[in-house]
Design a protein that fits this description.
This protein has 475 residues and is mostly helical. It folds into 2 domains: 90-331, no CATH class; 333-474, no CATH class. The protein is 63% helix and 7% strand. It is built from 22 helices and 6 strands. The chain has helices at residues 2-18, 37-64, 70-77, 82-88, 94-113, 118-121, 147-165, 172-175, 177-201, 215-221, 235-241, 243-263, 268-286, 288-291, 295-298, 304-317, 320-327, 334-363, 399-402, 406-420, 431-455, 457-465, and strands spanning 128-134, 140-145, 228-229, 233-234, 377-383, 389-395. Strands 1-2 form a two-stranded antiparallel sheet. The longest helix is centred in the C-terminal third of the chain and has 30 residues, at 334-363. The protein binds NADPH dihydro-nicotinamide-adenine-dinucleotide phosphate. It is a multi-pass membrane protein. Belongs to the ERG4/ERG24 family. GO terms for molecular function: 7-dehydrocholesterol reductase activity.
Length: 475
């Protein structure tokens, strides 16, 4: 019996190491089973105000040259009423509805019907059918990783149209930006509501559903872990990684085309934003298989937070720098442009290398070299609910010896570079770095809370060995 248990444990340990050590008890991961008042208040706030925030930012550019204060001043001094602002806002149009429907349908087609061919000729690229992490109920989903291919096909068609076919103007996205916002909202709400109904009545994997009994919390944070239609249409991967992120670079290209149309040239700041964000987006697609093991896919359920967030928040607020530069075409001096480019590239390098070091370390179970040396680490263990003990390792070499979330630090440096490219005249383009700082700091705390309850005193040994979270010596 004991031998049997030992064999079982060693098999599980082996299994765990191949799955990036994500197996743990249901109580320790994913979203909560019970809602506290603070979470509920935050959720109600976001449900009510997030769509208004997006509208306010986009409207400020459309009607107030990207000033965030002028609309408020106008409203408070009686120069304008809410109805004046609303009446000047472009309505939903058939044209925008047609563009948006075509766009989403095309991305669904690329996602579902074109198996990946990039991995067959791109050395080092991991595509095709890949396994995700073990879900809390013990399921392992398979995914067709073909995002890079979808991105390439879409962009080839975009450039073919811009330089050869001329079916539509490359400014099409900018020209329909607010009517498209209504379409994105409709899709965001439809998909989140559908996901909620699906979670109740026909879940893909009933054992991976979580119900708190609180309607708003369940709607926001999701019930199903991995809702799917059929074998391959995975909601979380599709909405996280297709219509919004593939569009990100096209939206920026459309802004650049608008600058060209309005001013007869594209400024170096616009080129910087296009290049730096383009690298970030391409990195996402190149590493899509790795992305299956990140917190977004491994821990979050699919609700409004992801459904609406991916359809509206991401494409509209992550692209504010390019939108701003259409209204304020900043031409940077050579020294400033070089400095911002360096900051963006160094930030990207840190972000990528830190993620790579952890991935390599976990994949090889520590049998690798980090910065030319055998890695140092803290041995740790944790228990699952059935009392089985598991072993894991926390890396303390390379960037992981500098701070506990140096990947976030690199991400923040890159984010700051996009914002700095817009100069200092307005705060609107700085929304991204403010938002990312809040998001990633909150994520640090959320993740560390989870790791601390998972690893207990071993986590304390790790935090003693690597005392800072983001900036060595500071925080
Ligand atoms: P991480 O990739 O940092 O993963 C955190 C997990 O890694 C922990 O829960 C723990 O899991 C494990 N871990 C923690 N410390 C160590 C260590 N020293 N050695 C080995 N494993 C460790 O976090 P995310 O998934 O949040 O982020 C991935 C990337 O995505 C980041 O670079 C981030 O910047 C980026 N990102 C970008 C966003 C955007 O909107 N642009 C949003 C969110 C993230 P375990 O239980 O396995 O031990």
């Amino acid at each position: 019996m004991a031998a049997h248990q030992e064999k079982k444990n060693s098999e599980e340990r082996k299994h765990e190491s191949t799955q990036n050590n994500v197996q743990t008890s249901q109580v320790q991961w994913g979203r909560a089973w019970e809602v506290d008042w603070f979470s509920l208040a935050s959720i109600l706030f976001l449900l009510m105000f997030a769509p208004l925030i997006v509208y306010y930012f986009i409207m400020s550019c459309d009607q107030y040259q990207c000033s965030l204060t002028d609309p408020l001043v106008d409203l408070l001094t009686g120069n304008a009423h809410l109805s004046d602002i609303w009446n000047k806002t472009p309505a939903l149009t058939y044209r925008a509805a047609g563009i948006y429907t075509l766009w989403v349908t095309f991305q669904v087609f690329l996602y579902v019907f074109i198996p990946d061919f990039c991995h067959k000729f791109l050395p080092g690229y991991v595509g095709g059918v890949q396994e995700g992490a073990v879900t809390p109920a013990g399921a392992v989903n398979k995914y067709e990783i073909n995002g890079l291919q979808a991105w390439i096909i879409t962009h080839v068609l975009w450039f073919a149209n811009a330089y050869y076919f001329h079916w539509f103007s490359p400014t099409i996205i900018f020209d329909n930006w607010i009517p498209l916002l209504w379409c994105a909202n409709i899709l965001g709400y439809v998909v989140s509501t559908f996901a909620m109904i699906k979670g109740y009545f026909f879940p893909t994997n009933a054992k991976d559903c979580k119900f708190t009994g609180n309607f708003f919390y369940d709607y926001m944070m999701g019930i199903e872990f991995n809702p799917r239609i059929g074998k391959w249409f995975d909601f979380k991967l599709f909405f996280n990684g297709r219509p919004g992120i593939v569009a990100w670079t096209l939206i920026n290209l459309s802004y650049a085309a608008k600058q060209q149309e309005l001013y007869g040239q594209v400024t170096n700041s616009m080129i910087l934003v296009n290049v730096l964000q383009g690298i970030y987006v391409l990195d996402f697609f190149w590493n899509e298989a790795w992305y299956l093991k990140t917190i977004d896919i491994c821990h979050d359920h699919f609700g409004w937070y992801l459904g609406w967030g991916d359809c509206v928040w991401l494409p509209y607020l992550y692209t504010l720098q390019g939108l701003y530069l259409v209204y304020h075409p900043v031409q940077l001096g050579t020294a400033n442009a070089t400095g911002i480019l360096m900051l963006g590239l160094i930030g990207y390098y840190i972000f990528r290398m830190t993620n790579h070091q952890k991935d390599l370390f976990r994949r090889t179970n520590g049998n690798c070299k980090i910065w030319g040396k055998k890695p140092q680490y803290i041995e740790c263990s944790y228990m699952s609910v059935d009392g089985t003990k598991y072993y894991s390792k926390l890396l303390t070499s390379g960037f992981w010896g500098w701070a506990r979330h140096f990947n976030y630090t690199g991400d923040l440096m890159g984010s700051l570079a996009y914002c700095l490219a817009c100069g200092f005249e307005h705060v609107l383009p700085y929304f991204y770095i403010i938002y990312m700082t809040i998001l990633l700091t909150h994520r640090c705390i959320r993740d560390e809370h989870r790791c601390s309850s998972k690893y207990g005193k071993d986590w304390n040994r790790y935090t003693a060995a690597v005392p800072y979270r983001l900036i060595p010596g500071v925080f």
